[in-house]
Amino acid sequence: MLAKRLMTCLRPSASLTSRRRACAAVTDGRAPDMAEVRNRLREIVGASTNWSDHRQAMAERASLSSMLAKSQGELPAKSMKESLLEVHLPLGSQPQLREKYLTFHNTVRFGRILEDLDSLAVLISYSHTYNPALKRSPLSIVTALVDKIDMRQHDIYPDGDIKFSGHVSWVGSTSIEAKMHMTQYRNGEYSPVLDATFVMVARDPQNKRAAFVNPLRPEGPEEEELFRQGEANKSRRVELSTASLLKVAPTAEERKIVHGLFLNTLDKKTVSFRSRVLPPDSVWMEDAKLKGLEICHPQERNIFNRIFGGFLMRKAYELGWANACAFGGCRPGLVAVDDILFRKPVEIGSLLLLSSQVCYTEGKHIQVRVHSEVFDPMSRQHDTTNVFHFTFASDRDVPNIVPQTYGESMLYLDGKRHFDQAVEH
After folding, report:
1. pLDDT, tens digit, for every residue of 111-126?
2. How many other C-beta atoms lie within 10 A of the C-beta of residue 49?
3. The model's pTM
4. How confident is the model at residue 23 (pLDDT cuts 50, 70, 90)?
C-alpha cells in the first residue's frame, strides 16, 4: 500500500503545473510524509532498518548488476510528470513531530529541512527510473551536488504544515537534476519558502561505477523550458569549474581587490611589507573560524551503508550558522545555499572533521565556507569529502573580513564569487 500511495503521484496528467496541484490527492486523501519517503527508499533498494540485516542486504545487492542497462538507448524515455512527487511534513497538525524540528528559539531547524530535501531528491530520481517489472532497483542513486537553494522567505514556522514537491528537470546519461519547492501553510494558504536544485548520479548496485538512467522526454513548452534551464545549469557548472581559483589565476579585477585589501592593512608608520595593521571594524580571517568533530555511527547511515548526505549537510549548516552567529553577534538568517559538492562518500566509523570559515562579508551579509574531511588516526591521512557554501544575513552591519595570506585571499575571492551568485538571483 505504501508503494501504491507514493506512485499514485506518478500518473500522467494534462500539464506539469496541473499535476503539481493534483499531486496531494493520493489514495488515502493525503500526501505521504517523510517517514514514508524513507521507508519507500528502503523498499526500492532492499535495505533494512536493522544494522546487521542491512549489511547483509547490501552485500546481496551485487547480484542485481545483471539488471543494469548496457546503454541509455535500452531504457524508455520518461516525462517530468512521471517523477513528480509531493510530500507532507505535518508540523502544525502533529505536535509530537514538531520536537524533532524545533530550535531553542522556537523556529525550525533548517538542517532538518536539508535532510528532508536530500531524501526527496533521491526518491524523485528513483521515480524517474522506476521499472514496474523489477522488485528492487539495481541503481544506487546518490547526491553529487546541491546546485542551489534559494530562500523565498526567511521565516519557517514550527506550527505550520509544510509541503515539499519536486520532479526531474534534466537528465544526462548517468546524472539527474531534481528541482524541488517547499511551501508552508500560513493564513489559510500555502506560501513559497524555498526552491532547490539537486544533482544526483546513478551508480551500479555496489556504488562503484556509473550506471545509465532513463532519458527525459520534455512535453510541452513548460517542460522544454525547464530542460533548457537544466542544460544551462550544466554549462554554468562546467564554466565555474574551469575558472576555479584552484586551477587558474584570479581575474584582473580580482587581483585589484586583493591588492586593495593588502594596501588597506599596511602600517602607515613603518611602510613595510611585513607590518600589517587591522583596519577599523574588521576581523582577521584567521580569527573567524569554528571547528567540529563527528564520529560517524551506523545510526546516520543511508540506504547504501554510507553516511547519509543529509546528515552531513545538517552538521555543516549548523556549524556554519554558529560561526556566522558568533561573527555577527546575532542570529543570522539563511539567504542561499549553493555549490555543495560531494567529492567522496563518508564511511561508517569515520572521524569527520568540520571546519567553518567566514570568508567574505558585505554590509549585513556573511559568506561561510565549511570544509569537511575524514581523518584516519592510524595513517594520519586527511581526505576532503565535501565543501559547503552558505550565505547568511544579519540584522545589522557586520565587520569586514580581512585576509592576510595569499591562500586566505583566494578564499576571500571564492567567497565573493559565491556571494555574488547568491544575491543576483
Report:
1. 999 999 999 999 999 9
2. 9
3. 0.87
4. very low
Interval 259-311: pLDDT, tens: 999 999 988 777 777 778 999 999 999 999 999 999 999 888 888 888 889 99
Cβ–Cβ < 8 Å for 373, 296: no
Quote the cell numbers at residue 197.
536544485
Read off the C-alpha cell for 30.
493525503
Evaluated on CA atoms 361, 389, 386, 109, the torsion sign reads: positive
At residue 98, φ and ψ (nearest 5 deg) are: -60, -35
Q: Is 106 left (phi over 0), alpha (psi -120 to 50) or beta?
A: left
- Reading the block at residue 64, the C-alpha cell is 542485481
Q: At 6, is the pLDDT very low, low, confident or very high (cuts 50, 70, 90)?
A: very low
Q: Is the pLDDT of residue 257 over 60?
A: yes
The pLDDT, as a whole number, for residue 18 is: 54
**First CA to last CA across the chain, in angstroms?**
41
Residues 6+ apart with CB under 8 A from 109: 101, 102, 103, 314, 318
Under the banding of pLDDT at 50, 70 and 90, the label for residue 141 is very high
For 382-395, how does the pLDDT look when each residue is reduced to its tens digit (9 = 90+)?
A: 899 999 999 999 99
- Grid cell of 408 as nine digits: 586566505
Sheet with 162-171, edge to edge strand ranges: 85-89, 162-171, 175-186, 189-203, 140-151, 333-342, 381-393, 365-376, 351-362, 289-295
Q: Tell me: the pLDDT tens digits for 25-35?
A: 343 456 788 88
Distance, in Å, from the CA atom of 199 to the CA atom of 233, rounded to the nearest integer, reads: 10
> Contact, 108 vs 157, CB < 8 A?
yes
